[in-house]
Design a protein that fits this description.
With 661 residues, this protein is of the alpha+beta class. Helix content is 33%, strand content 21%. Among the domains are: 38-263, Beta-galactosidase, Chain A, domain 5 (Distorted Sandwich), CATH 2.70.98.50; 556-661, no CATH class. The strands form nine sheets. It has an eight-stranded antiparallel beta sheet, covered by helices on one side. The chain has a three-stranded antiparallel beta sheet with strand order 1-2-3, with no helix packed on it. Mean pLDDT is 92; it is low at 1-28.
């Protein structure tokens, strides 16, 4: 039976404890979310519904987010920007959908925000905060997520005057996007429901009491509860009992949220070496990035996972090798999410063993033209390292085994044990996508040949692919040992030894002291360019010491890879080196840089690895000492952040480097 038929039920087991996955920390120091203000800049007020690149705060797997109002948009002060819907191009429902207005004593006009109003806007791990100080009253507002489709806003009114004051409020609703509106008033609960034309339903709940007498130097706190779901029938509503419970137990909800994020931070910052504050801030930014891209099961995605980035609107699905990398970083912090990230991709394994390249809420968008490099066994081994969950290993092992075998059945054109990247539709572009390096120079002259009715291969056997497969054999051997499959474990080790000899013999060039892809027919290295595929052999442990020394020397050469931000995806000496617009022709991708640094460590080049890591951390624009978002990749010469912000695997590999994993 294939995993797709029974994973959803298992998902319910993992999801039930996702919010409590961090281990108890032996340290007596409690890491409070308030210790890390504005590690990410989350102040944005949209001018239109389709401003997709504005940053938002999201949590607990929500497919939407909110932001703090911009400093220069006083008309939006006093409320939280949004919500912004993730996916389908991204859509802002409003500059600020629910806006509270406050009236002091018997005033007929609400308090007015002006340039003279003392205000504060702060994003913390786990919540947004804003405050406004008027002449006789201070207003504080906090927003948290209580579930994947619900948020809770806490509003505290402080009377700073010398006499008791009456403060009343009401809610206004305004949208950038067309909507219908209904108002329902019950004995204790006031409900506003908005229905948007893209089938999203928003509900807002507050207690009917909207007037408070606040003594001098006293305060009054109340809550509003919001839900946002996609519901084309418009028949599902949050029960009034649920809403009332949220409103009456708001303080407990905020305490629970704080505790959850304290647990995250304790586990995140409990590293083998004490981290400086600047590195702690970097780690927190990584965690916030991954959590903001965490998405629960939705439509065609039956299991939760982490998307590459919520920002552009087209990354609203799960990619295979992204998922494996996210899982490795999340394993010690949020192990159930890490497990579900693996299951989210294995769910889409076909009967032949292939795993889809990427999958979406709209299954019509799923890409079966190619898969991605095999890193799933690495992810599962790391999850086991941190959880010792043998049951999980037993559940996924048959599918990892079938995926491993698939490569040799469908991507080994001449059956010599060395695989090629390829496609299911016979196109070169899909075959290049399968490498994950999309438009890399190494594929410029490649051709494609047919293996069977549903499989084609490039005419070059790739060193990174076969190094990944070598590593996977070793990880599969470990997973067999965990299950007591001794004979099968030894089989993988023997296969790994055979593959290692072939890679060392055919894919390393003694003249240039570097690894290359080789021609499918001549078995000679294709030396048209030098890229990160060579150092994957070091990460996987497939090179001998002399070969590792040769690759190390090329990496450390400032003419090639030892640039301001080190380890670009193409040698800086190559004529096609183009970091600004090259995508995989020059920018530094954090996963590849991580593999280089980890590979150097593997072969004893610790000082070299530490030097590259320091340059990578300190020269990437905006990562440290800044609230700038983590980006998809970086310019190796200038350090400039490039392409998509809030990028998950960049955050994952920054995190792995800082935690020395």
């Amino acid at each position: 039976m294939y995993l797709r038929y029974f994973v959803p039920a298992l998902f319910l087991v993992f999801a039930s404890v996702t919010y409590h996955t961090t281990a108890q920390n032996s340290s007596s120091n409690v890491m409070l979310p308030q210790s890390f203000p504005n590690t990410l800049h989350l102040q944005n007020t949209p001018d239109s519904s389709n401003q997709r690149y504005l940053s938002v705060f999201s949590d607990l797997g929500a497919w939407f987010g909110y932001a703090l109002p911009s400093n220069d948009k006083k008309q939006s002060w006093g409320a939280f920007s949004g919500p912004m819907l993730v996916g389908s191009g991204n859509t802002w429902l409003a500059a600020a959908l629910a806006v509270p207005q406050f009236y002091l004593n018997n005033a007929s006009n609400p308090l007015q925000y002006s340039q003279s109003t003392t205000q504060s806007f702060i994003s913390y791990p786990g919540h947004l905060y804003q405050s406004y100080q008027f002449e006789q009253v201070t207003i504080e507002m906090r927003l948290i997520f209580t579930s994947a489709n619900s948020t809770l806003t806490q509003i505290t009114l402080h009377n700073t005057g010398s006499k008791t004051q009456t403060i009343r409020y009401n809610w206004q609703f305004q949208a950038l996007y067309p909507h219908e509106k209904t108002l329902l008033k019950h004995k204790q609960i006031h409900q506003t429901s908005l229905y948007f034309t893209n089938n999203w339903q928003y509900e807002h709940y507050s207690l009917n009491k909207q007037k408070f007498k606040v003594k001098a130097n006293g305060s009054q706190t109340f809550y509003s509860f919001q839900t946002l779901i996609q519901d084309s029938s418009k028949t599902e509503h949050t029960s009034l009992t649920t809403a009332q419970k949220q409103l009456e137990n708001g303080q407990q909800a905020f305490q629970k949220n704080t505790q959850r994020w304290q647990n995250y931070l304790q586990q995140l910052l409990d590293t083998p070496t004490k981290q400086s504050l600047i590195y702690q801030n970097g780690l927190v930014k990584c965690l916030q990035t991954l959590v903001s891209n965490w998405k629960v099961a939705h439509n065609g995605l039956p299991i939760e996972g982490v998307i590459p980035s919520y920002a552009p609107g087209y990354f609203h699905g799960f990619w295979a090798w992204d998922s494996w990398k996210h899982a490795v970083a999340l394993a010690p912090l949020m192990p159930n999410l890490a497990k579900n990230q693996v299951l989210a991709m294995l769910h889409f394994q076909d009967k032949h063993g292939m795993v889809a390249d990427c999958v979406f809420a709209d299954s019509l968008e799923n890409n079966w033209r190619n898969t991605k490099p095999p890193l799933a066994a690495w992810a599962v081994a790391q999850i086991y390292k941190h959880t010792h969950d043998t049951a999980f290993v037993k559940m996924v092992y048959p599918h990892l085994k079938q995926y491993h075998q698939w490569w040799y059945k469908h991507r080994d054109h001449n059956s010599n044990g060395l695989c090629e990247y390829g496609s299911t539709d016979g196109t070169l572009i899909a075959a290049a996508w399968e490498s994950g390096m999309d438009n890399a120079v190494r594929f410029d002259e490649a051709k494609i040949v047919q293996n069977n009715s549903q499989a084609w291969s490039l005419t070059q056997e790739s060193v990174d692919l076969n190094s990944y497969l070598y590593a996977e054999k070793n990880y599969l051997s470990q997973l067999c040992q965990i299950q007591g499959f001794t004979q099968e474990s030894e089989m993988y080790l023997l296969e790994a030894q055979k593959l290692q000899k072939a890679i060392q013999q055919y894919m390393y060039d003694p003249e240039t002291r570097y690894f290359y892809d080789i021609d499918l027919y001549t078995q000679k290295p294709i030396k048209s360019q030098q890229g990160p595929e060579a150092w994957i052999a070091l990460w996987a442990g497939v090179a001998n010491q002399e070969q590792a020394q040769g690759v190390r020397d090329v990496i450390l050469d400032s003419l090639h890879f030892n640039t301001l931000v080190p380890c670009p995806t193409l040698s800086a000496a190559h004529v096609k080196f183009n970091p600004q617009k090259g995508y995989w022709r020059g920018p530094v991708w954090l996963d590849q840089a991580y593999f280089a640094i980890k590979g150097l460590h593997n072969y004893g080049f610790k000082e070299d690895a530490d030097q590259l890591k320091h340059k990578l951390l300190h020269n990437t624009q905006g990562f440290l000492n800044s609230s700038q978002a983590i980006h998809e990749n970086y310019h190796p010469i200038t350090g400039k952040a490039l392409n998509v912000p809030h990028f998950s695997w960049s955050a994952a590999h920054f995190m792995l480097l800082l935690r020395q994993q």
